[in-house]
Each structure stands twice: as structure tokens, then as C-alpha cells.
Amino acid sequence: MNNQPDHCSPLVRALRPSEYRDAVDLFQSAMHAPLVTDDQWPLLARTIAPREAFGVFMGAQLAGICQAIPTRLTVPGGGTVRASAIGRFAMRPDHTRKGAGTALMATYLGTTTAPVIILRASEGGIYRHFGFGVSTSAGNVVVNRHQAVLTADVADAGRVRMMPAQDAGPLTSDVYRRTPRRPGMVDRADYFDDLLRFEAQTSPSPLWVAVHTGPGGNDGFALYLVRETSRIGETPRTVLTVADMHYHTADAWTGLWRYLLGVDLVDEISLLQRPSDEPTAWLFTDPRSCRLQTDSDETWLRITDVATALTARTMVGDEPLVAEISDALLPRNSGRYSLSARGTHRTSLPAQLSLDISTLASLYLGRIRPSALAAVGRITVHAGGETLEIADRLFSAPSPPWCGTGV
Questions:
Q1: C-alpha distances in angstroms, 256 versus 7, 185, 218?
Q2: Is residue 372 within 8 Å of residue 133, measured between CB atoms?
Q3: 201, CA 20 to 30 Å: which among 34, 165, 212, 311?
Q4: Run of H or E residues at 358
């Protein structure tokens, strides 16, 4: 029972090591997941970066947590920018809508030195208020295994072996490190191996990893589980669900698919959170055996240092553009910026368009064109002519951004 008075003001501070387990338990509870056991805690304890763990207190009660890890984010042009990935942000249900969550996030945004922050949102209506915008998208792919037949054109090269997920952490981390990057991808933290072991221990069904080996060594993997699912009025189905899949080459990708289709006693193969341009349906003689579910938001992004973040990514085109950025939570970001392929800097020139920081976040990795957001009122154009055409070129990217890591 919470006996703290309702009039307590929220206090935000860095968490002490002795408070880490309570913080993780708070997060587990908020996600309706079991609390951490004594056996599991040594694994999860290593997932906390001391300088990136904050709590908000109402009196003596820990009311919410914000825990992130330092990483690097790949941006258009192939470069990277220093980033913070928030993996745990949650409030106790008896302390919501009291200003504590806003105080926690505002303090974290003002404290972090990373120019970019990313997270995955449990609820889509919350984070724009904090200046976040949807920056990458992904969709689930569902394949009818009984109907799916690979075309004769699909290569059959290399070999695939399976291994328990709890033993596969170092191998999958090595494959991921050598995987070609696209905008939106992040460096995986050293603790990712520990997190995989934790997932293997707590999974409702055994977790397996299929590893593809080509001429140059291990070059692809798929993390999966198999379980029976049923809905009222429907015949139970056995579904193989792929939760994580990365590869270096087309041969590795098709080799993993050949393996997945060969797993017996499976009715359906479901791949979670795949990039929109992955041509899965083209693998099969009947494209209708593969369904791509509607793309949805994958990661949300927040820019805390406009000039540093925009200079890190490649801008396309020869013509500069002056944009006025507004940022209510971090006023230091607000102002006019000259954007061009040569870099980004503050300017006193008249603005050609204006937008808020959350809109800039959605443009940053190239997920959507400025002209599309102008059409729905998210960008105001002050100068006519080719302003939006110039903006579309500046923020273009060679491929749809995708993260592929559960940050």
C-alpha cells in the first residue's frame, strides 16, 4: 500500500547501485512481466549503464525509471552519431498522471550528452510530447509453410546448423557486428549476450538460433521459437516465430529461409519487425504464400543537439535551406539553422520553412519526405518556389531506415 501523500513533488536523480534491482522490478511490473528471480538478476544487473540510470521519487517511493545505454546510430551516408538508447522507461501505475513521468524524461533529456536518443514506444501517443518522432518502421512477415515453395532461382549455398540460444550470444554478436549497416541500425551493447541468455531462460518455448556459414565463415543467423497458437473457433496452428535475423549476403538470407521452411511440424512462419524493402515474397513460386503486415513504428528518435546530429548525416544536393526549429523542452535547440551538404550551423537568415523538434526527428533518418509532412500541416513553408523539393533532396536516404534491434 502506498502511504505517500499526494502532494509530494517528484524528485529525479541518478539511481544508486543498491536501487537497480527495484528499478528493473518496477519495469517488469509495468510491462506485466514476472519479477526477476535471484538466479536471473546477475544477468540483468549487467544490462544497466550506471551513468544512464535515473529514477523519479515521490517521497521515499520509487515511482518511475529511465534507463538507457550508450551506443552509436548509423545515419544516411554511412556515418554514425553518438546516441543513447532508452531500453527501460516506466512508471508505477499508482503514480501516473501526476507529473512524475514528465519530470523524469525532461531531466534525462537535459542531462544526457548524447545528441540523439532512441527508444521503442509501448504506447504511440506519449512520446511526441517529449519531442520524439517516429524514425524507423518495420512490418511482420507471415508465410504459409504448406503453401510456400522456393523458386528454382533461389541459391542453395553454404550450410545451416542450429544451436540453443543460451549458447549463441557471442556468435550472434559477431555476425551482427559484421553485418552491413543501414540508417537506423545501432551498435549492440556488450551485454546483449547476457540479455539473450535471459530471454532463453524465460522464454515460454525453447529458443533456438539457426546459423548460416558461407565461404568466409558465419554470415547470418535467425533467432526463433516454435509454439502452438489457437484462437476461439479456429484450428490450433504451430507457428515458428523469428524474433531476430541478420545476414551479410543474399546466400546467407536464402540459406536461412531454406532452413526455416524445412523445420517439420510447422504450419506458419512469422518474422517480426522486418524492413519494408526485404523482398521475401519474391522467394516463392506463389507470392500469396507470404503476407507482409502493415508497417508500423519501430523506433522513435529525439534530437538533443540539432547541429551535431544533422552534421553527422549526409545531406543531398547543392542548395542550402534555412529551417526554423522549435523545441519547447530544450530551448537551446530552438532557432534558425542553415542546412546543406557542407554541414549545419545556426544562421540569422530568414527561415524558408519551420517545424518542431519531433517533426525533425521523423525526417532525420529519411523515413518520410518533408513534402509529405508539410501536406499534413507538420511543416510550415514560408518561401515558395522549390523549397519543399530542396528539403526532400536534403533529407533523402538510399534505403528505408530500419533498426532491427530491440533497444
A1: 57, 21, 12
A2: no
A3: 212
A4: helix 357-364
> Do residues 165 and 209 make contact, with C-beta atoms less than 8 angstroms apart?
yes
pLDDT digits (tens, 9 = 90+) for 83-108: 999 999 999 988 777 789 999 999 99
For cell 504451430, the residue is 238
CB 257 within 8 A of CB 283: yes
CA distance 79 to 310: 11
| Domains and their CATH numbers in the chain | 10-119 (3.40.630.30), 139-297 (3.40.630.30), 305-394 (3.30.1050.10)
33: which residues sit within 8 A by CB, 6+ positions away? none
CA dist., res. 355 & res. 230, Å (int): 47
Angle separating helix axes 169-177 and 192-202, nearest 10 degrees: 130
- Enter the pTM of the model: 0.93
* Contact of 112 with 330, CB cutoff 8 Å: no
**8 A C-beta contact, residue 119 and residue 127:** yes
Q: What is the DSSP letter of 120?
A: -
CA dihedral 25, 26, 32, 37 (to 10 degrees): 10
Smallest Cα–Cα separation from 355: which of 334, 385, 330? 334
Identify residue 339 by its one-letter amino acid code: L
First to last CA, the chain: 32
At residue 1, the pLDDT reads 44
Is it the case that residue 30 has pLDDT exceeding 70?
A: yes
State the cell numbers at 283. 522467394
Distance CA 399, CA 266 (A): 33
Distance in angstroms (rounded) separating the CA atoms of residues 69 and 52: 6
**pLDDT exceeds 80 at position 230:** no
Q: Which of 159, 119, 375 is nearest to 259 (CA)?
A: 159
Contacts of 147 (CB under 8 A, 6+ apart): 286, 288, 289
Asked whether the beta carbons of 367 and 343 are under 8 A apart, the reply is no
High-pLDDT (> 90) share of the chain, %:
82
